[in-house]
């Protein structure tokens, strides 16, 4: 019995030693002080209140069974606002979850080479941003994302977040460079809405989601990202609601309503676009690149539902500002109430002379290579003036 008592006492002592801790913080300094203490299973609760100008890096390591949770005391009651030239939350560890934070009227500016970002999942693995709210935030530098997934991490997730009324920004960016490409990012169950046209002169830099930034030189990079079950309402920031500029990504079961823009394969190859729904707005799906699969989408009340584009070059190995759509499969899509169902060969003979840097991008300037080797079959059309147009 004495031995049993001893082992029971030892068990409870060890259990107390490894039990999770909960920390409550209400300032940047208080948060930074507890970061070295964080271990798997711990939780950090940020007290309700209004905050600004934080810059927190979290390298802590959770586990699958015991993630480290950073959360608002009450969803939407922890509010960050004001000018920022740094990253407010930078997650560089593993199995970290950031949830319930609201970013409202933050102003992203650049100073001394540093640009404001709200959240950066940087070289992180199995980290997630969930149930966060991003409203009326303003980017003062073109092509600035509110949320970024960067570095060579993998299996990070952004889900159940609201992006509403943000101004002149990219809402969510997966950053791809020569040195880095995040893998298997999951973007799901988010809502994007009420995004006005950007004020930038060239009309670019207002995507809701962008995966890759240089489709000409880095479009062959395989990100293996999945964008699924998101909703987009009145997203008018620019012509590309979602901009794909990398390879082997999946766009599944998303819903688009009354947007001024399209789901765009701007670059990259071998992506899957399946079971998305488009209702109203100015466009559906625009395609450049090779090997894409576009199946089982429902597109209604749109002038041109699917566009396969001319390019300057062809294939995966030629450098082209635009790559002709080729070897794509377009099947079993249901198109209703459109002027043109499927347009094969848009932007024919468009001349890009003087419109991009041909030294940096050694590409022909004429969009004169037609789409080729595409398989179009078993699509259905209702109230469509021209089901398939080839140019």
TrEMBL record:
<dbReference type="Pfam" id="PF14592">
    <property type="entry name" value="Chondroitinas_B"/>
</dbReference>
<dbReference type="InterPro" id="IPR011050">
    <property type="entry name" value="Pectin_lyase_fold/virulence"/>
</dbReference>
<keyword id="KW-0732">Signal</keyword>
<protein>
    <recommendedName>
        <fullName>Right handed beta helix domain-containing protein</fullName>
    </recommendedName>
</protein>
<feature type="signal peptide">
    <location>
        <begin position="1"/>
        <end position="20"/>
    </location>
</feature>
<dbReference type="InterPro" id="IPR039513">
    <property type="entry name" value="PL-6"/>
</dbReference>
<dbReference type="InterPro" id="IPR006626">
    <property type="entry name" value="PbH1"/>
</dbReference>
<dbReference type="InterPro" id="IPR012334">
    <property type="entry name" value="Pectin_lyas_fold"/>
</dbReference>
């Amino acid at each position: 019995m004495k031995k049993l008592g001893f082992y029971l006492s030892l068990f409870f002592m060890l259990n107390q030693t490894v039990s999770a801790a909960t920390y409550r913080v209400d300032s940047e300094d208080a948060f930074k002080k507890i970061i070295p203490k964080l271990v798997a299973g711990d939780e950090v609760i940020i007290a309700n209140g209004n905050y600004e100008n934080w810059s927190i890096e979290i390298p802590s390591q959770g586990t699958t069974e015991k993630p480290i949770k950073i959360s608002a005391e009450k969803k939407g009651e922890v509010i960050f606002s004001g000018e920022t030239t740094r990253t407010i939350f930078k997650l560089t560890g593993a199995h970290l979850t950031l949830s319930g934070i609201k970013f409202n009227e933050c102003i992203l500016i650049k100073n001394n080479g540093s640009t404001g970002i709200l959240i950066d999942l940087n070289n992180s693995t199995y980290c997630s941003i969930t149930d966060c709210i991003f409203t009326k935030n303003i980017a003062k530098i073109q092509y600035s994302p509110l949320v970024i997934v960067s570095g060579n991490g993998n299996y990070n997730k952004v889900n159940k977040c609201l992006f509403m009324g943000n101004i002149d920004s990219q809402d969510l960016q997966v950053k791809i460079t020569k040195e880095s490409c995040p893998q298997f990012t999951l973007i799901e169950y988010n809502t994007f809405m009420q995004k006005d046209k950007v004020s930038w002169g060239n009309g670019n830099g207002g995507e809701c989601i962008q995966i890759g930034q240089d489709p000409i030189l880095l479009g062959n990079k395989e990100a293996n990202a999945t964008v699924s079950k998101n909703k987009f309402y009145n997203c008018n920031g620019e012509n590309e609601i979602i901009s794909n500029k990398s390879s082997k990504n999946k766009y599944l079961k998303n819903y688009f309503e009354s947007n001024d823009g399209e789901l765009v394969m701007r670059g990259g190859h071998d992506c899957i676009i399946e079971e998305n729904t488009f209702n109203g707005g100015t466009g559906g799906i625009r395609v450049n690149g090779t090997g894409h699969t576009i199946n089982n989408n429902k597109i209604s009340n749109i002038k041109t539902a699917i566009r396969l584009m001319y390019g300057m070059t062809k294939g995966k190995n030629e450098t082209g500002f635009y790559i002709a759509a080729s070897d794509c499969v377009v099947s079993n899509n249901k198109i209703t109430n459109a002027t043109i169902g499927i347009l094969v060969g848009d932007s024919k003979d468009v001349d890009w002379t003087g419109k991009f840097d041909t030294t940096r991008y050694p590409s022909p300037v004429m969009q004169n290579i037609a789409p080729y080797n595409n398989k179009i079959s078993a699509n259905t059309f209702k109230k469509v003036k021209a089901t398939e147009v080839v140019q």
